[in-house]
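INFO batch 0412 | record 1 of 1 | parsing
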Amino acid sequence: MYIQDGGVKLTVVNALGREAVVAILGPGDFFGEGCLAGQDICMASATAILPTTVLVIAKSEMIRVLHGEHEFSDRFIAYMLARNIRVEEDLIDQLFNSSEKRLARTLLLLARYGEPGDLQKTLPKVSQEMLAEMIGTTRSRVNFFMNKFRKLGFIQYNGKIHVNDSLLNIVLHD
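INFO prediction complete | emitting tokens
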């Protein structure tokens, strides 16, 4: 599936019913590609978090296009490699960084910091609970750090989250 417009969150649930947000995706992102590698059951659930337009591509059509359209194939492979790198970075972040740094990094990633084009400074609708699920902490810790970031001028937060470039200081500071 290819997101043309809007936003999607991918979640997984463990045997005890605990849910974790594993990704927030936006325009230009793919999901559900595990079927191309023979994955019978999708491990994650996708939920629109904004009004969203998704292009559903049949497996047979995707395979045909990947084999026949080299420009598209190159773009898709580049996307998958970049996402694999991001997953590795997320794992390292989870293992070695504080929840404050994980939150700052997540806000910057949601704002698409460092990608070509302008920084999407105002984030799509995202709750403190969802942020807590993404970084592996509690909503109260997220609330604490969001208030700290706001007082330091790294974000504006009144319903919608507006991310300032200066938030990068939290991620870079040891």
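INFO post-check: The first strand starts at residue 2 and ends at 5.
INFO record closed
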